Structure formats: structure tokens, C-alpha cells
Amino acid sequence: MKRLNMQFIAVILVLGLGFFNYCCGDCVWYGQCGYYPGSSDHALNCPYKGKAKPLQDSDVIAKYKSLCPDLYAEFGKNTCCSDAQVNTIASQVALPNMLFQRCPSCFHNFMNIWCYLTCGANQSEFLYVNKTIPVTVNGTAAVGIQSVDYIVSNKSANEMFNSCRNVQSPSTNQPALAMLCGGYGYDKCTPENWLDYMGGTANGQTPFDIWFHISSSAVVINGTSYTPLEFKSFPCNVATSNETEACSCQDCLATCTPVPPPVPKPGRCEIIHLDCYDFAFGLAFIVFFLLFGCYCMCYNIIVQDSLRLEKAGEENDLGCFGRQGLAADRNVRKQQYLTNITESDLGCFERAGAKMEIFLEKQFFNWGYFCARHPFIVTVIAVLVTGALVAGAALLTVTTDPVKLWSAPDSRARLEKDYYDSHFTPFYRTEQLLISQPDNHTVINYKNHNYSSLFDKTFLHELLDLQNAITKIQAEYNNKTIMLQDICFAPLQPENNNCTIMSILNYYQNSHEMIDKVAKDAYGFWVLADYLDHFQSCVLSPFALNDTSLLHTPCMGTFGGPVYPWVALGGYQDKDYSTANAFVITFVVNNHLDPKQLEPAKAWEAKYIEFMKNYTAEHPGVQIAFSAERSIEDEIDRQSQSDIITILCSYLIMFAYITICLGQYTSFSRILVDAKISLGLAGVIIVLLSVGASLGFYSYLGIPSTLIIIEVVPFLVLAVGVDNIFILVQKYQREVLQDGETVEHMIGRVVGKVGPSMLLTSLSESLAFFLGALTQMPAVKVFSLYAAMAVLIDFLLQISIFVSLLTLDAKRQEANRVDVTCCVQPSLGKRQPQKGLLYKFISDHYSHFLMKEWVRPTVMVLFVGWFCACGALTSRLSIGLDQSLAMPKDSYVLNYFHNLSKYLSVGPPVYFVVENGHDYSTYAGQNEICGVSGCPQNSLVQQINTASRSSSATYIAEAVSSWLDDYFSWLVSPPCCRYNNKTGDFCPSTEVNVDCLECPLNHTQRGRPVDDTFYTYLPWFLKDNPGLTCGKGGHAAYGSGVQLYKSSHNETHVGASYFMTYHSVLKTSEDYIAALKNAREISDNITRSLNETGQHYNVFPYSVFYVFYEQYLDIVMNAVLNITYCLAAILIITFLLLGFDIYSAIIVVLTILMILVSIMGLMYLWDIELNALSLVNLIMAIGISVEFCSHIIRAFTISIKPTRKERAKDALSYMGSSVLSGITFTKIAGIIMLAFSKSQLFQVFYFRMYLAIVLFGACHGLIFLPVFLSYIGPPVNKAKVFNNKLTDTVEDTTTNSEQHKPNGNTPHVYENPPAYDTVGSE
């Protein structure tokens, strides 16, 4: 007992004297004296006053020389540290070694500050022991150093910090200092804060407290002056030796060559502070207004003599327009000129045009006459052929996969997606929750820092209960129970089967106990750290296995990966995550290429959605927006089902209108006879047959259909078909059956008159749609093909089946039989031809009003003004598709979209894929990819990281994670790469085995593995799980990102691999499009850099949304090309079928173009974006516009009235009522029903756009076009006038001769169309 007391007294004396004597020798410690109380791995150093001692063990000397080269060069083997201390410092800097090794200058400077502290032979000059404690070593009382003061010069501390501040950690996409600066975080990290954290025992790694004094002058402690340590340091852009390289640009901005500032987004073109489009169209309208105004004034004064300057009958000289006299005299002279036309006055094109007109009328007359004479044969044959085509619909496949719908098989995005999916696993399915409390404004104050109400501990427990309940959801599939565990992505399988759940609850290991855990003072009274301290530590270092708070609990998720705060939190200010207004919980589920393998996941997702709907209904106080991978598809299907009734009602209304309004009711007694109910139904059936035949035809060819076709093509074909039906029937209704003429002959005569017009419109539309199929956009391409065939088949059925049925119906009507019930035959008089009320209104009133001299200029100014205004607005059209429009108004997904846009803090991940072919085993090949020291600035990693520094312009938010860089660090970190020297197998860092040795690096170049050394250890790296001893294991981060394969010589090689980063926040279609465009620019530049060395493979970016947004990169050009193709087709067909009349063809195209521009202008005003849906509607608008324009202009060209005004009236009277009652009223009746659709997509892209198509088409066809033709329509075809004069002469001669024939049968001039082919014959 006395002996122990004496030993204790001796220890106390040593402690007391130690404070006065440490300054007097070269060392302040030597060797290790036990461990910190309560610790088994925090060794304390032994106080020592004396000279430095030489190291003896050769392995320790080699390790010391490697870690502390400057000390070895200055003091040799003499140190103030023992072999054990050298081994301790080697183990304690394992993490900094892995983080800083990529930048030799940083690691060198960092090690200097710890080498001089631990082993410096002159410690006493800058190190002061301020506290020691008694310890027991092997049962013997001793003294251990508990705290020291370390005086470091400003210069050395700042140079060390500056050399390390930009060093990156590739696996985490974060600066390395984010892990080594503790609670200060990277943004607030300074030399003082960094050293303060590294020197404190609170970090869980430092065995005793080190109080740093950073000073430029001597520091006096207890009366003794200490000189600040100043060691040799290297800037990051300077190599530490001939065997090393300067730090790379990624880790050292000073190494980077100046990067040009990002090119600013091009602003809108302006002229005198006006938008160029506004200026151009405004100027065009002003010029038009002035010129047209001058014309109108001259016309009214000189031609119309509105000022009454001439007297009746007075002849004046030629005016400024080369016209004479009053308007009446002018019209008389024109009539006289046309009456006196001779054959020598006819032009070549006029002759050809007349022959074309006669040829078409003859052929259609013959065909119509044939169908009328053989209605049953024609109908049966047509039905059989059509039925055979319709039967092909049994093979119909409908494309619902959005990828196939919006991306062409040979498009770049589609090919890149297929490459990614085939070489790696398809991008994961995600089930996501967005939790917020918008009505709870409670503030949680902790340690003078405010937290939002979401951080209430009780709420976190409730949230964890919800998360755990979701993981326990069970679904049944094929008599098997499916849980999240069965379908989730677990990156560390099979060693770790925990699912990847991106949630801040994973900071607490998904444990209620971890949330409640606290660290108290030594007396167990004061709480020093709790769950909020742990949260602050984890958001600064989410990959920490031992947080920087006093809790010392892990932040890494249970699945083996980090949970980044910008992924799990939303709605925070700057990077103050405590202000987050939303928690984001994401369950990551495996995806598969085989749809059958996805069924279990879909079954579980259905139960998950059901569970969340119930949970949100039961917890109204918390706003939870949720979504599953299948949610959008489910909601679209639900919307389609709900809109079936709306669509059916729309079509039923149109069908009812057709069947009722097709009849012509002249008196109450003839209503049932003059009705066309059966004929109208037949017309509707023909439309449906044409759609079915088109579906069947392409089904035979194996071309799948889409929902767009099923919804849009019937509308289009009905528009075209109804117009032709009304034209045919109303032309028949206005004709009279002549004495001795058969019904068959009259039907042939009717078809001969209107058939060419039907051919003109149908052929124009069909060819236009076929040319529209030249586009690469699948949705537009398939629609164009199906629409073209449907329109063509509809025309063929109308001139065959419908003409045959019209003949039968005409015979029924002529025989006064009741419609539908033909056996009933009331006693009525002969049918009298009637023009109809609408025809009379247009012919007798509307056409005259429209041609008034004050109305015509008004119409021209209004329409041209509107066209110019819309032309200016087209440049402002937005591109894209708001996905929320595809959802029903009551969909839970809309709430998810809203919250996603409101709280989203990070964009989707983007993978830069290096295709198979790159050689990573050579130093030059590594330089083309890597980002560590020695890597050039134009390497893949360097270019992406350079882009991330300008995220607002490039949309790359974070530095790229590089498996190659982490592999280099893993390989040279002693705890990481180890092998069993007996079995040769890999030794994980967690395995304690004396047989595990460091990996021998036989072939290296400047510290990097090359040749076979590179490939030997790569598979080990990719299966090594990160841990506390070695945080660089690549299994979790890169296990699925590097494809390895065996060569023919059984050698391991790297195939395709990817390098991941994140896009910045993307909220609008414009953001997504710009992100795709910029990512491709970066990858294309990388590819060019790689190919400069003679390699021939690509680097491409891949993100899950690229395949959907690629179409928008060139949708404007696609739209222009499609519209151009369609208009060119209409121009050609109109030119040919109107008898080589280029004048009329140009007017038709110009009018259709005005309709399109008007629709696009209204699209801007109605916030309708340009996308595949609206482009389909625009192409459809071209086809429907043909119906509004071509019938009118053909009627104008065949009219032989003397003046343009009279011909415009004639054309409007002849075709206006059919166009108005046919396509216009029919479509409006059906479109109105679409306004009641629950689908926003239908309301926007169908109701609004269809309404615009019909209204603008009707206005331009029935108002603008006649007026336009009255001004500058094509001149009258003199050949037709001449032919008409010959026909009249023949009729008069025939009539006179037949009057003198006894018992002669009077031939009728209706047997054939006028013999235009005799014009000009010799």
C-alpha cells in the first residue's frame, strides 16, 4: 500500500514538473501511454523531455518517409515519435489520405501539419502540453497527455487550407472538406475552423485535444514564448516532386486555364426596341394598309365613280388603273368581250384547263352513272373489300408506351436509352412522398437556431411509422406475397439487403431509438447533443459513418449509401436545410426491360397507392403528395375511361345532326319522304368503315396504332366525309329530274358536277398527310399515315357505296316512299327541287352583303390585320407539354406535380456514358477520363466539373462522381486494397486477418496503376462495400456503373461505363429542353476530345427524361417541314385538278396558311404549347382547311360570270351552304360536347384547338376567301366561256331540228357533260 502511494506521489510530481520542463528539451512526448479513459482505440502519448530518438524498424521508417518526407529530409530518422506513434498516425490519416491523395500538394501540406505535431524533432519550439492525466499501462501508473497547444504560422495554415479547399470526393459529388470541417460545413470552413474541428476530440477520431494557435508572431503561454511552426508548403498547382503531378483542375482552380464566361442566352431580336417579329408584321400591315387604301380610293373614285364625276353614257380616257367609264359600262364591256371570244383568243393553259375539267367531269359522270345503274353490285364489292381491310383490325396493336410514342426508334435519345438499358440496369422505378405542413408555422428553436415545424421530434416519429408501414405493405401476385423488400433496389446485396430509401429518417438508421438518442454531460444532467445536432452533422457530411456531433452515430443510410440533403429535403433557403418546408421520401425499386418482370412491382405499387389514399384521407393535418411509377399511366387510363362517354356523346350529336339535317324539308306532308335518315346513317357508317379499314390496312403491315389516332382520325374523316356527303346530297336536291331522264342519269350528272371537287379536296388532304408522314416523330408519323389512308378510303367509299345508296334513296324519294320504312307510300305529288333556306340565305342575302363595297375592304383589313398579329405571336409560342394536363382534374397526381414544382431542390440524375472501346489501362487513356492530379483540363471529368461551376447556364448542378478517380484512391489506401497471401482472394477492409496484405502494384506510372495491374484489382474495388476503415469501396456507388467483360484470352476489360452527376432544378419544359441540349453539347465536346487520339466511340448523356424531350429540340423545324410538305402537296394537286391553274393553287395555299397562323396565334393566347399533340392538330387543320377553301375556289374557277365579284357571289352561293351546313355546323355541334370533358388534355388540345380550326376555317373559307377572290381571283377561263357558247349553239340547233321531226324522241343535253374536248380542234 505504501509502495502504491509512493508511486502515485511520484506521478503527481512528474505532472507538476512537466508543465515547467517541456519547453526546455527538443521533444514534448515520446511513445504511447495507454488510452483515453473509456476508450480502447484512442491512444495517449507519453510526456517526454529530451532529444529525438532514431526509428529502428525498416518498415516503420519506410512508412514514416512516405508520410512525412519533409521531416525525414530535415531530421532523418530522428523523431519524437515511436514506431507505435508512426503506425497510429498512419491509421488516423486513412480517411484524409483517401480524400486528399488525388491532390498531392494538398495531401503533402496536410500531412506536414500532423507530422510535425507527432514526430517533429523540434516539438518544444511550437508545442506546449497544457494538460495531462494519470493512466494505467499494463497495471502500472503512468501519465498521458490529454491536451496540447499547437502554434502554427498563418502562412502555413492558409497555404494548407488553400491547397485543399477545392479537392473533390468523386463518390459523393462533394468537396472533401465537407467531411473534415465538422459542423461548420464547407461553406463556412476556414483554416481556423478546419483545424479547430480536426484537433477536437468531439470529432470522435482525435485521441486528445489539440488547441491550434494560428499566428504570424510568437505566442506566449505561461511566460514561455513559442515560435509558430512554418513548414514548406506547395500550392495546389505545383507538383511536390518530380514523381508527382500538380493537382488537377477539378481539385485546384489555379491549375485551370481560364474558362470563357458562359455564352448568355440570346435575347429576342429587336429593331428600334421592338421585337423583330412585331416590327416585321407591323410594317407589313402598314404597307398593306397604305397600298390597299390607295387602291380602294382609286377604285371607288375611278371605277365605281363614287364621287359621281362622270355622266351616264360618257366615255372617258383610261384611268390610272387602265379601266374606262362607270362600273356598269365596264361590266357591259366585259360581257361583250366574253361573248365575242373566238378560238384564237384561247391560251394554251386555258385549253389544257378546260380539257382537264371536261375529262374529270366525264369520268365522274360515267362512274356515277355506272354506280347508279348497278348499286347492289358496287355496294357488295366495296363492302367485301372494305370488310377485308377492317378484318385486319383484329391484329391491331395500340402503342401506349410513352417512349415508343414520342421517340423514333432511330432517334438519338432512343438509341442512347437502348444502349444504356442493355449495358446497365434500366433506370429505377420510384415511389415518392412529399410531406409538408403548410398550415403549421411553429418554429423550433434549438441552440439559437430555428427549425421548421417538420423537425418536431413527435412528427419525425409519426413519419417513421408511416415509412415503416409502407415497407410492410403486402400485395398478391401469382399467389405470392410481394413486399417492398422483394422489388426494391438494394445496392449492397447480398451482404446488405436493406432497400434504398432516400429519406432523412435514414440519418437515424430508420430507428425510433436513434431519433431519441441524446449525449449528456459527465453528470448525466445537461443534454449536449440530440437528433437535431445529428441532423446538422449529417446534412454537412451525409456519407459519415461517425458523425461530428457528440452522438458519434452514422449518417450513412442503412442501404449502404448516403442520403443527400438536397434529395431528401425541399423548400429550404439557400443551403440552410433547417428551413426545409418539405420532406421527400423516395423508395427506389428495380426496373426491368421485360414487362413481365415488372408485374410484381406494379402489383405492389397498386397497393401502395391505395394505402396512401387512405392514409392522406385519415390525416388531413399533414399534406402528403405521393406518386408511384405507375401513377401517370393509371391516371391517363382512368381519364380515358371517363372521357369515353363525352367522346361518344360528341360523335352521337354529330351523327344525329347529319341524319336529320341531310334531309330537305319543304312541307309538313313530305317530311317523312324527304328525310335522309337512312342515307345519313349510311354516310356515318361509311366514315366509320373508312377509319376501320385504315386501322386494318396498317395492322396488316404491322404498324401499331396510338390513342391519338383513335381519338383524332375519326374526327378528321368525319369532317371530310360529312362535307362531301352534304355537297353530294344538296347538289342532288337542287337538281330536277327532266322529262324522260332516269334517276341513274341524274345521279351520274350530279356526280360529274361535284366529283371533281370531292377529288380535289380528298386527294389534296390524303397526299398532304402522306407527305406529313416523312417526319421522324412517331406520334405525328403514324397519325399522318392512318389519316391519309382513312381519307382516301372514305373518298372511295363515298363515290361508290354512298353514290349507290344515294341512287336507291333518290328512287325512293321520287316514288314518294317514306324513309326507313320504304313499304309505306303516301299519296304525294312529284318532288320539286328546292334550294333550301340556308342556300337561299347565302345566295340572296349573305353573298350580296359580303360583296358590298364597304364590306369588302373591311373584311380585308380585319383579316390581314389579324393574320399579322397572329404571325407576330407565333414567335412567342412555348414548346413542350405540361404533364399535369394529362391528368384528370381530381387526380392525386396533380397535387404531387404542384408540390414537386414548389419544393423540388435538385434535378434528375444524368449519366455521361462512355461507350465500349476505351482503354483505361494506359496512362494516356486514363488522362482522357480522370480528374485526379496529372489529368488534363479537357478530360471527361474535368469538362463536366467545369460545366458544374456554371450550373445556371449548363444545368449541371454537381461535380461528377468518377469511379476511376475513386479507384485510384482506393488502390493506394492501405486499409482498402488487400489480398489474402494464402488464397489470393480479396480481403475486405473489415476483415481482421494477419494473412491480409496490401496489394502489390507491379505496374504503375506516376502513381497510377497501368497495364494488367489496373484490371487485376478493379473487380475487387467494384465489390468492396464502403466502411469506416475504407470509405472508398465502389460497390454501392459504382457496382452497376462499370461493365466488365472477359476477352478471348480470359483477360478482364472495361466495357461501357458511366459517370453520374445531377441536373440543376428543372421545373418547366424550357428547363428540360435546355438541360438536354447543354448536356449533349458537353458530351459532344468530350467525344471530339477523345476522337482526337484516333479513338472512335461516343460519350453521350443519359437521363430518364431525355427520350421524351428530344422531340422538342427540333420540333419547330419538324413543324415547318411538315406544314411545308402538306402545303406543297395541296399546291400540286390543286394546280393539276383545277386545270393547271397556278393562280388558284397559290390562293388556296395562302388561305390555308392564314388559317394555320391564326390558330397558332390563338394557341399563344390560350397558353397552348407546341408539341406532338398540337402539331398533329395543326396538320389535321390543314386537311380540314382544304374542305373550307377548295370547294369555294373550284366553284369560282368554273364560273363564267364576267366579273370577279359576280363569280365570287356565284361560288359562295353554289358551295357556301354545303360547307356551312356540312363541316361547320356538324363539327361545332360535336366540339361543344368536348368542353364538358373532365380531361384537361381534351379541353386544351381538342376542344380549344378543334373549335379554333372550325371557326377560323369557316371564317376564312366563307368570309375572307370570297372577298379575296373578288379582288385578285384568277381571271375567267376563256376556253370554258367559249365552250359554253358552243354548247348553247348546239342546244338551240338540236331543239329547232327536233321540233320538225315527227314522233321523234328528243335527245337530252344531259347525257354527257359539255364537249369541252372539242375546243380548239381543227
A few lines on this structure:
This protein is an alpha+beta fold and 1322 residues long.
What can you tell me about this protein's structure?
The chain is an alpha+beta fold. Among the domains are: 2-255, no CATH class; 276-330, no CATH class; 428-635, no CATH class; 901-952 and 962-1113, no CATH class; 1286-1318, no CATH class. Helices cover 52% and strands 11% of the residues. The protein contains 44 helices and 34 strands. Strands 15, 20, 23, 24 and 25 form a five-stranded antiparallel beta sheet that branches. A hairpin with a 2-residue loop joins strand 16 and strand 17 (449-451). Helix 13 (375-391) runs antiparallel to helix 27. The N and C termini lie far apart (150 Å). Residues 1-24, 311-325 and 1297-1322 have low confidence and may be disordered. It comes from Candidula unifasciata. It is found in: Endomembrane system. GO terms for molecular function: cholesterol binding; lipid transporter activity.
Structure keywords:
1322 residues; alpha+beta; five-stranded antiparallel sheet; four-stranded antiparallel sheet; 44 helices; disordered N terminus; disordered C terminus
Rg, alpha carbons: 44 Å
Termini separation:
150 Å
The helix count comes to 44
Low-confidence stretches: 1-24, 311-325, 1297-1322
Residue share in helix:
40-55%
Shape: elongated
Total DSSP E strands: 34
Q: Give average pLDDT, whole number.
A: 84
The main β sheet shows up as: 5 strands, antiparallel
Structural class: alpha+beta
> How much strand?
5-15%
Task: Give me the secondary-structure topology.
Blueprint: H1 2-21, E1 27-35, E2 43-50, E3 53-54, H2 58-67, H3 69-75, E4 78-79, H4 83-92, H5 94-100, H6 104-119, E5 127-137, E6 140-153, H7 154-164, E7 168-169, E8 174-175, H8 177-180, H9 191-199, E9 209-215, E10 219-221, E11 224-226, E12 270-271, E13 274-275, H10 276-303, H11 327-339, H12 348-373, H13 375-391, E14 398-399, H14 402-406, H15 412-423, E15 429-436, E16 444-446, E17 449-451, H16 457-471, E18 475-477, E19 480-482, H17 484-487, E20 501-502, H18 512-516, E21 519-520, E22 527-529, H19 531-540, H20 565-568, E23 569-570, E24 582-589, H21 595-618, E25 623-627, H22 631-661, H23 671-674, H24 677-700, E26 705-706, H25 707-734, H26 743-772, H27 778-814, H28 837-850, H29 855-874, H30 892-903, E27 909-914, H31 923-927, H32 940-948, H33 951-954, H34 963-972, E28 978-980, E29 996-998, E30 1004-1005, E31 1008-1009, H35 1011-1023, H36 1035-1038, E32 1042-1046, E33 1052-1062, H37 1069-1091, E34 1099-1102, H38 1106-1109, H39 1115-1137, H40 1142-1165, H41 1172-1198, H42 1204-1234, H43 1240-1272, H44 1278-1299
Parallel strand pairs: 6-9, 14-26
Antiparallel strand pairs: 1-2, 3-4, 5-6, 7-8, 10-11, 12-13, 15-24, 15-25, 16-17, 18-19, 20-24, 21-22, 23-24, 27-33, 27-34, 28-29, 30-31, 32-33
Helix pairs in contact: 2-3, 2-4, 6-7, 10-29, 12-26, 12-27, 13-24, 13-27, 22-24, 22-42, 24-25, 24-27, 25-26, 25-27, 25-41, 25-42, 26-27, 26-39, 26-41, 27-41, 28-42, 29-40, 29-43, 39-40, 39-41, 40-41, 40-43, 41-42, 41-43, 42-43
